[in-house]
Amino acid sequence: MPRRTDLSSILVIGSGPIVIGQACEFDYSGTQACRVLRREGYRVALVNSNPATIMTDPEFADRTYVEPLTPDSILAVLERERPSALLPTIGGQTGLNVSVALAESGDLDRLGVELIGANLETIHRAEDRSGFKEAMAKAGLDVPRAGTAHTLDEALGLGERLGYPVIVRPSFTLGGGGSGFADTRPELAALARRSLAASPVSEILVEESIAGWKEFELEVMRDHDDNAVVVCSIENVDPMGVHTGDSVTVAPQQTLTDRAYQAMRDDALACLRAIGVETGGSNVQFAVDPDTGRRVLIEMNPRVSRSSALASKATGFPIAKIAALLAVGYRLDEIRNDITRATPASFEPTLDYVVVKVPRFAFEKFPEADPTLTSTMKSVGEVMAIGRTFKEAFGKAWRGLERSGADLGAHDTSVSDEEVLASLHAGSEARFRLIERALAAGHDVDTVAAASGVDPWFVDQIEQVRALASGLTSLGELDEATLRAAKRGGLSDGRIARETGASEIQVRERREELGVVPVFKSVDTCGGEFPAQTPYHYSTYEEESEVLPSSRPRVVILGAGPNRIGQGIEFDYACVHAAFGLEEAGFEAVMVNSNPETVSTDYDTSSRLYFEPLTAEDVLAVCDAERPVGVIAQFGGQTPLELARTLEVAGYRILGTSPDAIDLAEDRGRFAALLGELVIPAPPHGEARTIAEARVVARRIGYPVVVRPSFVLGGRAMEIVYDDEELETFVRSAAEASREHPVLIDRFLEGAIEVDVDAVCDGADVFIGAVMEHIEEAGVHSGDSSCQIPPATLADEELDRIEEITRRLARRIGVVGLLNLQLAVKDEKIWVLEANPRASRTVPFVSKVIGVSLARVATLVLGGRTLADLADEGVLPTDATHYRRLPYTAVKAAVLPFGRFPGVDTVLGPEMRSTGEVMGIDRDPGAALAKAMVAAGHALPTAGTVFVSVANRDKRAIVFPAKRLADLGFGLLATTGTAGVLRRAGVPVEPVSKVSESTDEGPDDVVELIRAGRVDLVINTPFGRGPRTDGYHIRTAAAAAGVPCITTLPGAYAAVRGIEALRAGATTPLSIQEHHAEARSGPIQESLRFERDRASTRGGVA
Amino acid sequence: MRAPAALLALEDGTVLRGSGFGAEGEAFGEAVFNTGMAGYQEILTDPSYAGQIVTMTAPQQGNYGMHEDDAESDRIQVAGFAVREAARRPSSRRAAGTLGDALLEGGVVAIEGIDTRRLTRRIRDAGAMRAAISTVDPDPASLVARVRGARPMSGADLARTVSTAAAYDASSMVGPADRSRGHALRVAVYDFGVKRNILRMAAAAGLETSVVPAETPATDVLAGGFQGVLLSNGPGDPAATRYGVDAAAALLGSLPVFGICLGHQLLALALGGRTYKMPFGHRGVNQPVRDARTGAVRITSHNHGFAVDPDGWERRGETARTPFGAVELTHRNLNDDTLEGLRCRDVPAFSVQYHPEAAPGPHDAGDLFTAFRDLIEGRAA
Ligand SMILES: Nc1ncnc2c1ncn2[C@@H]1O[C@H](COP(=O)(O)OP(=O)(O)O)[C@@H](O)[C@H]1O
Ligand SMILES: Nc1ncnc2c1ncn2[C@@H]1O[C@H](COP(=O)(O)OP(=O)(O)O)[C@@H](O)[C@H]1O
Ligand SMILES: [Mg+2]
Ligand SMILES: [Mg+2]
Known about the structure:
A: 7-stranded antiparallel sheet; B: 21 strands; binds adenosine-5'-diphosphate; binds magnesium ion
């Protein structure tokens, strides 16, 4: 049966902000679903709070609602849209959970909205861990011994019954949130408490631990006529106990016999049938005991998942797209395989290559966090690599991580040869490097396999790599055969350089001289049985290349690589628009990227896709194969910028801003000089190599100062320092971090308003996308602070000056394409903090707000168009101040991963730590703010108790918001100091003791109150400097108890406004298409202002 | 020990250089590729591969070693084996030995380190070709020349060369027939190169099988008190396997017949149909086959270079008119529309081109053995 004709409109739910465990893969799946459903003639409405996604671009749905993913706000959308169906299976766990809530509340039935893709019973059977166990038992499928608990006692009882160690997993969570292992009763007690809290239905599964077994996943699709296929098998190289999201994984599975694999396939299909997944994709996880071969089911997800994104990219089988088609009634054999264009989708892809995925972690940003890998996912991104052998793919994946220090074979001093075996037991970021170390130390494959739980076949592969590497002598002596063997073994030029004491360039030259260069093969779903119609390529050291010539000129787009904090989905967004823009401008877009979660690595986003690491070696190989007329390096974030120079030297043309211009903006020395020349104010600046020097510089500049090691980016290791003592401690640690590199010292503009600008320059004219005013003051990294359009408090005259500075800088630097500027406004002066001559984190946000895709405009400019032309064609608004007077306000808020890392201080600072962002948009500025906060997970209370405790410098300014809260009927608690100030100002408040003051018999201290759930909102700004013990306890307690915690004064003002808006009642949600239409025609309305508030905060600083 | 250099040559002059693993020497045969990702042991020991040099499209082979009960016959049957990389260290702690050692013991010449995707694409575009692997002749030209002199697969009668010499009772090999569906039924299995899993699955379906040599006259079987006949899979050109066609023709109508792969082709010929050589055949475990009667699609295991011509008969729609009455064309391959199954309306017989016994491959079609039992018991399935 072809598509259902009884459905007319479909509501698609996205997955919201990027968080650990739920990343861009759901932009990929949502985008595919929206595209195909519209192609099928359905009216598509979409809800997603994440503005950095491609799917929320106006052209991907008929109505796009950038609203919080809460039952209430989605209900409001449903009431407006009255769709015939809701597709809950492509928005990750978030999409699934809200859909369940709406189904259970009866609202879907009431509105006559059908759940397609998965029905309520199915979702329950799969997600509720006990229901799942029963279903499996009924189907005669083996599962680990376990029981479910809803209380602590039940959990402890199970612990006794099952025997330790046990694993605890909450129902309806993602990325192993709230799960973990317990070896003893006390451990279980602590864990169970956390875990029960983590489960939205406070249900947990207590299960015998089978850590150390082999772990597998199958990606399965089934249609309503019970035709089912396994799209891909994935084997975890890390054994059970490390979350699949944190494990190194390989596809297809490498170590099971066909007999064992087919039995697993039978179980997976039986599982789908037992759970009742009728239309769509599911992911089924297995564990296999390596000694007995016993196989058990771990879980199944009745939806598109992280692994399905990986599986899609690994096989060329577009799972999300096909899941959407199945959901609207198609059968697998009615859908065509896009890659062969000759065969149907009712088949099982076969791979004639090996795919390896390696996770990317960010522990350096959370020093207090525990870096051991467990059943709770901790990675922030991943790299996928394709090679003809495991060794080749493994090597490509590791160099794709772009972590020079963590590269395979990098000398690791963290453990001694004696400890190395023992260090292999626990999962860690370093495990595979240490496995090689252990082998190098003379331990044999079996010993290492036993010690690590990694299958001996994989250990032997690593041993082969090690042997290849250690066999390399001096570069000059390397003959063609040895070098080719090394490359076929996946050794990077970088590693060969290390092993031979040569430079990477020398290695590359030697290779080319000996003709040791890669060829490019195609991902074709069928192992070569049918010709591939889609140019989806990977490099390998083989004989035959499959790259076809093309008629149109080609432009290479360098992607952003793995997600990491500071470089995420926003940059993929820009790259995807670059691809669309290039096609529009008559070029063939050639995409290079290594991140399987992304839209950019969908084979139908660009004309040609190269799934390759973003390293000089691999990117040059692509360019040599494609001979592009130009390369775009300014959209993929920092990664491609670092490659620009190399490519230019190799004779490739960098489109837009030249590498030298990039350096002019990036090099803080050159940039400072340039600002001086243009007499644009910048914070007084200096460099120091010794503590003595540092003191002198600091004195000259005056405290407080911002200090940072010169070699790092992403605000890494940046600190605000208030006196000599702190300065010394910092310089000491930084000096270690970066030997020769000096420490950079800037005057810290305390209490300044921070501003971001995104603009496009064509070399002459400049188009200002928007000036964004941050809510938090300068000092909170731009990536972590909230900001809004139109600016909240900046006067037109200030905005004019900011725009003017932007124009002058853009021209002087020689920007062609995108420019992001960060400035600070203080004492009626405008200071420039930094200029990034590339796509920025805020490009998608600005584009969504003003209704103009900056990335597309920039691409057209790179393609030779002028801004003047584009203005004439109506691509650009003619009113230069377009963004200042919009009939709506949009607020961007950051989402931070503190929930994942218990014990990490949640105070915001100059080091970026957020993983994603959300946007709130509304005609009413307060409502926009509230939406942003709610979407970001700060469930603002509309009544209850607020705890206030602020630093001395904030005490005066806190009176105002505190009073408002009291007027709104909130009860106020405060620590003695703050309480005193409030009382004197006539604000009713009840004092409570700090942890440091608390006594055993005395009244509960604040932390106890927070734990006891007696506090609904915490406002706490850090006390001066030094060990902020009390503040730390308060904030971490709030984070643990899931109580919203505001750590800045402007944040407090914003929260108050948000609460006011929430109390005023929900406003009707409007789609961004409607907002944009209104902006073009509609009435112009004054934007949010709270001068008075800001004045008082300004008053707070000297 | 340094692996010997080896060459793989095709009759079109293509030569790939790799290194030998397994036995040293030379092997001639028809070059074919299999797209299954696991299951190399079942493939190597499947008699249907007699006379063929098999390359696996999946690059890494031998990863889990060799296992006692994964053998489909008592020895390695392929003429030669070509892979991108052979594991030197198997994963499984329960493995009986490595792939390389098994090939060595089996005296089978093998090559690794070649661009198997290039080889596969060559075969796909130019069709299955005569080929050779040599670890002894370093001269491409001479090897190619000798390949061109080798015997082609068309017209080759190979079934008799791999068939059992004497009849035997399968229970000795796969244990007694399952009795849960009532008493066991006695079935004769014509061994044209039968895979053990056919006998295992027959036993599981309650069929007690006696395996008889390929050239056994139908009269012997008719006299043997059997209740059904299974025509097995096997190598070679069906049209050249006259004795099989004659036996099938003689048995049709007298005993219920079930044909698998070559058995299916022989049945078709016995029904007065035609077979033809496919460009490069179907070899893999991911082929979608639709049952025209139910519309159900099954993912099936394939290994055939010849196929039955659906236009070999005069037909109305999917029903052919044959000397034995109406025959339904029951199955088609969704990739290329190849005919994959037949069912006689007027005599008790059916056949499939694919492998319901899998091994290697998915179990989607395993129920055909009980369907055969039902046919014998007069319950039309
Ligand atoms: N019984 C168990 N013993 C040991 N490890 C387990 C067990 N069950 C799950 N795990 C580990 O925990 C991880 C997360 O469990 P899973 O149920 O997949 O959670 P999620 O829903 O977050 O994917 C798995 O990938 C696996 O490595
Ligand atoms: N001189 C300064 N005064 C006040 N805040 C500053 C100053 N320099 C940097 N910051 C704060 O630190 C953050 C990160 O600094 P930035 O130079 O943007 O590093 P990155 O390269 O990581 O973006 C900025 O967003 C800003 O909030
Ligand atoms: Mg999981
Ligand atoms: Mg910045």
